C-alpha cells in the first residue's frame, strides 16, 4: 500500500507558523488528509508504538480506502481520554491508566477493541537495593518480600498503574494473611482493597513519577515500574534490572490496551464507525506484519517528534484479524477485558468506578469482529 502524503512542505511551514503541528506531548490536532468528500472521524493517538495500528491505518491509506477522513490528535493518555469523554474526539487509543472511564456509573465511552497483549510494563530493581538478588526467575513471594518497605516509583496515570494492581494481586495470592503487600495512595486509601490486615512491616512507598523522567531518575528508587523507551534506557544504563514482566509471572493476567469510542457519537454514526473499524483492523494487520514500517508511520504522522529509532517493537503480541477472532473464540477477549475491570476496581482509581458496570456494559466487540471477518473474506 502506497503511503499517503500527509501534507506538503509548504503546508508544514504554514501550520508550524500557526502553531497547529503537534509536538507529540500535548493534545493537539496532527495534520492529516483532508477530503470533504469522506466521512470524518476524530481519533486520539498516543505517541508510542502501542497506538501504531492507528498511525498505519492513516499513513498507509487504509482509512481513505474505507471512505474515512481520519483526523488524528496525538498526545498523552489522560488528555486524550478527557477529550473522548467530553465528545471532542470520536475514537481513541486508551491505556490502562485511564481505563476507569469504561467502568463509571454511566460510562460515556465503550471498549471496542483490544489492541495488543503487551509485555512492555516491567518491574525493575535497583542492583544496590533490596531487590538486588532478584531475577525474572524469582518467585512472586520473593519479589513481594523484597518490596516491603521499599520505594517504588511509577506513573499512576499510565499503564504501570494497572501492572501494579495485577502484580499485587498475584503476589498476595502467594503470601499468607497478615504478611501481604500493600501501599497507601495519594488520597490516603490503603491498597489493594480487601486485605484481612494491613501490617506496617508489609507496606511499601508508592511514588508518582512520570514514565519518561524515570529514564534518568530510576536509580533514586529501590524499584520502578516502567515501559519503553524509558525502561529500555534504564536497563541499558545499568540503573536497574528487570525482575518481573507479565510474560514471566502472570501470563493469564493480561490487561491489554484498548480502543474506545464515544457512545453518543457511535449511536449517531454507526455506519461511519463500521468503516473506521475496517480501516483500523487493516492497520492492525499492517503493524503485525510490518513492525519497522509501522514505526516509520508514527514518525511521519508526528512530523518527526517521535523517532522510529526510539520505538521498541518487540514489547507485545500485536493482534490482527486472525488473532482477534481467536481471542473471541477462546473466551480470552472477555477474560482479558474482565482483567482490566478488576484492575480498575482494586487500583488507584477504584473510587471512580462502579462495581455494577460489567464487562458486557463496558464493551462491544461486535464491530471489531465483523470487520475482522470481512477482511479475512476479501
Walkthrough of the structure:
The chain is an alpha/beta fold and 378 residues long. The chain is 39% helix and 17% strand. It is built from 16 helices and 14 strands. The protein has helices spanning 9-18, 52-59, 62-65, 77-85, 140-147, 160-174, 214-217, 230-236, 246-249, 263-268, 270-289, 291-301, 321-330, 332-346, 359-362, 366-376; strands at 28-29, 39-46, 68-75, 91-94, 109-118, 122-125, 151-154, 183-184, 190-191, 205-208, 223-226, 241-245, 257-262, 316-318. A 7-stranded mixed beta sheet has the order 1-3-2-4-13-5-14, with helices on both faces. Strand 8 and strand 9 (190-191) form a beta hairpin. Helix 11 (270-289) crosses helix 12 and helix 13 (321-330) crosses helix 16. The radius of gyration is 21 Å and the shape is globular. 49% of the residues are buried. Mean pLDDT is 89; it is low at 5-26 and 28-32.
Gyration radius (Cα, Å) is 21 Å
Q: Would you identify the regions where 5 or more consecutive residues have pLDDT less than 50?
A: 5-26, 28-32
SSE series: HEEHHEHEEEHEHEEEHEHEHEHHHEHHHH
Q: Report the major sheet.
A: 7 strands, mixed
Order of the strands making up the biggest sheet: 1-3-2-4-13-5-14
| Straight-line distance between termini | 16 Å
How many DSSP helices?
Answer: 16
Query: Average pLDDT value?
Result: 89
Strand content: 15-25%
- Relative helix content: 25-40%
Amino acid at each position: 500500500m502506497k503511503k499517503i502524503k500527509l501534507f506538503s512542505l509548504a503546508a508544514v511551514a504554514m501550520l508550524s507558523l500557526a502553531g497547529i503541528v503537534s509536538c507529540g506531548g500535548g493534545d493537539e490536532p496532527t495534520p492529516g488528509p483532508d477530503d470533504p468528500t469522506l466521512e470524518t472521524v476524530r481519533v486520539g493517538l498516543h505517541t508510542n508504538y502501542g497506538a501504531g495500528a492507528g498511525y498505519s491505518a492513516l499513513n498507509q491509506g487504509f482509512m481513505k480506502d474505507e471512505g474515512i477522513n481520519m483526523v488524528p490528535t496525538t498526545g498523552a493518555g489522560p488528555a486524550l481520554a478527557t477529550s473522548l469523554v467530553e465528545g471532542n474526539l470520536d475514537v481513541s487509543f486508551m491505556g490502562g491508566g485511564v481505563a476507569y472511564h469504561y467502568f463509571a456509573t454511566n460510562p460515556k465511552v465503550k471498549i471496542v477493541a483490544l489492541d495488543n497483549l503487551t509485555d512492555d510494563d516491567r518491574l525493575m530493581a535497583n542492583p544496590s537495593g533490596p531487590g538486588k538478588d532478584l531475577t525474572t526467575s524469582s518467585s512472586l513471594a520473593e519479589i513481594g518480600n523484597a518490596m516491603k518497605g521499599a520505594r517504588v516509583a511509577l506513573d499512576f496515570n499510565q499503564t504501570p498503574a494497572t501492572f501494579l494492581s495485577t502484580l499485587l494481586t498475584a503476589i498476595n495470592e502467594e503470601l499468607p494473611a497478615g504478611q501481604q503487600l500493600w501501599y497507601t495512595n495519594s488520597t490516603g486509601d490503603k491498597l489493594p482493597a480487601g486485605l484481612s490486615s494491613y501490617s506496617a512491616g508489609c507496606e511499601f512507598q508508592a511514588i508518582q513519577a512520570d514514565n519518561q523522567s524515570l529514564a534518568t531518575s530510576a536509580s533514586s528508587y529501590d524499584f520502578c515500574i516502567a515501559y519503553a523507551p524509558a525502561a529500555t534506557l534504564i536497563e541499558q544504563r545499568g540503573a536497574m534490572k528487570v525482575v518481573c514482566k507479565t510474560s514471566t509471572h502472570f501470563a493469564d493476567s493480561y490487561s491489554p490496551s484498548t480502543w474506545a469510542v464515544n457512545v453518543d457519537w457511535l449511536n449517531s454514526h454507526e455506519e461511519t464507525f463500521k468503516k473506521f473499524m475496517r480501516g483500523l483492523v487493516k492497520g492492525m494487520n499492517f503493524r503485525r506484519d510490518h513492525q519497522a514500517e509501522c514505526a516509520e508511520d508514527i514518525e511521519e504522522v508526528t512530523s518527526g517528534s517521535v523517532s522510529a529509532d526510539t520505538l521498541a517493537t518487540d514489547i507485545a503480541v500485536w493482534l490482527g484479524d486472525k488473532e482477534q477472532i481467536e481471542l473471541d473464540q477462546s473466551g480470552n477477549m472477555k477474560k482479558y477485558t474482565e482483567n482490566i475491570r478488576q484492575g480498575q476496581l482494586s487500583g488507584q482509581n477504584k473510587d471512580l468506578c462502579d462495581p455494577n458496570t460489567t464487562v458486557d456494559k463496558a464493551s462491544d466487540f461486535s464491530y471489531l469482529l465483523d470487520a475482522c471477518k470481512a477482511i479475512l473474506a476479501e
